[in-house]
């Protein structure tokens, strides 16, 4: 079972937990009511009104995952949050690689940092920012949404925290190859815009193109089939973005 430690305030729960990882047992969760420098993928920031949302990091050690398959951790964490959230709201999807969306709006961001040693993945720090009770967003983030806005009620933060962390711990018990394959298939089915329709994407230089999502490779590469020539091409994190309502996300 997870072990919870509350900090009244910290710059980043991921940074704090990574610094203390060797001294803490697996399953430790650091959470805070006020995170002053929360981080997302590739240095993106995360807005969270103090006392309204969940900002936490969870430590897992010696997961039975080969380094080459470490994207499984991202898949498991994403699906764990989807499983919990869909109790209360509909149309919950995973926007590649691991943002949680309801419709075209962002509910949750995830940052996973793996530490490697000679044996493989020594430990994993899973950072989660989940919008829960915040109803006004003041940053320039284009499309945030919270559980309270979607479900039209407030939530008990610690109850949601416990449900999410227990689901993460459960799904990160990966089992054998057949269970891992099923997890990967579940992730593909839960993927935002994996509906066979043509959608708009953008490259880092701003070039836009139309494509359908074909698959996600086990290493996390997104495979898009370009509408212009019918050719599939693979993209790593930050090599391509969704275009939603003319905004690159």
Sequence-ordered SSE layout with sheet pairings:
Elements: E1 3-7, H1 13-20, E2 28-32, E3 54-61, H2 71-85, E4 92-95, E5 99-102, E6 105-117, E7 120-130, H3 147-151, H4 157-171, H5 177-190, E8 199-202, E9 208-216, E10 222-226, E11 232-235, E12 241-244, E13 247-248
Structural class: alpha+beta
Main CATH class of the largest domain: Alpha Beta
The total number of structural domains is: 2
Largest sheet: 7 strands, mixed
**Span of the ends, CA to CA:** 35 Å
The name of the CATH superfamily of the largest domain reads: Bira Bifunctional Protein, Domain 2
Number of helices: 5
What form results from the Cα inertia axes? globular
Any idea what the CATH architecture of the largest domain is?
2-Layer Sandwich
Low-pLDDT regions:
none
Rg on CA atoms, Å: 18 Å
Order of helices and strands: EHEEHEEEEHHHEEEEEE
Quick structural summary:
With 249 residues, this protein is an alpha+beta fold. It has helices at residues 13-20, 71-85, 147-151, 157-171, 177-190, and strands at residues 3-7, 28-32, 54-61, 92-95, 99-102, 105-117, 120-130, 199-202, 208-216, 222-226, 232-235, 241-244, 247-248. It contains five helices and 13 strands.
Can you walk me through this structure?
- The chain has 249 residues and is an alpha+beta fold.
- 23% of the residues lie in helices and 31% in strands.
- It has 2 domains: 3-190, BirA Bifunctional Protein, domain 2 (2-Layer Sandwich), CATH 3.30.930.10; 199-248, SH3 type barrels (Roll).
- The chain contains 5 helices and 13 strands.
- It has a 7-stranded mixed sheet, with helices on both faces. A 6-stranded antiparallel sheet has the order 11-10-9-8-12-13, with no helix packed on it.
């Amino acid at each position: 079972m997870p072990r919870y430690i509350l900090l009244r305030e910290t710059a980043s729960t991921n940074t704090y937990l990574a610094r203390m990882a060797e001294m803490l047992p697996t399953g430790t969760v650091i959470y805070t009511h006020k995170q002053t420098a929360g981080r997302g993928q590739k240095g993106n920031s995360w807005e969270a009104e103090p006392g309204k949302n969940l900002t936490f990091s969870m430590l897992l050690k010696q997961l039975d995952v080969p380094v080459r398959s470490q994207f499984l951790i991202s898949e498991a964490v994403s699906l764990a949050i989807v499983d919990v959230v869909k109790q209360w709201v509909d149309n919950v999807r995973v926007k590649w690689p691991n943002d949680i969306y309801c419709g075209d709006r962002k509910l949750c961001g995830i940052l996973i940092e793996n530490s490697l040693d000679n044996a493989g993945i020594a430990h994993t720090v899973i950072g989660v920012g989940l919008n829960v009770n915040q109803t006004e967003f003041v940053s320039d983030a284009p499309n945030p949404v919270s559980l309270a806005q979607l479900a039209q009620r407030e939530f008990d933060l610690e109850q949601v925290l416990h449900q999410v962390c227990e689901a993460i711990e459960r799904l990160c018990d990966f089992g054998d190859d057949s269970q891992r394959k099923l997890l990967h298939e579940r992730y593909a089915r839960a993927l935002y815009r994996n509906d066979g329709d043509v959608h708009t994407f953008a490259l880092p230089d701003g070039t836009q193109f139309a494509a359908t999502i074909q698959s996600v490779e086990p290493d996390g590469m997104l495979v898009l089939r370009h509408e212009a020539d019918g050719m599939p091409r693979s993209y790593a994190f930050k090599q391509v973005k969704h275009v939603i309502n003319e905004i690159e996300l």
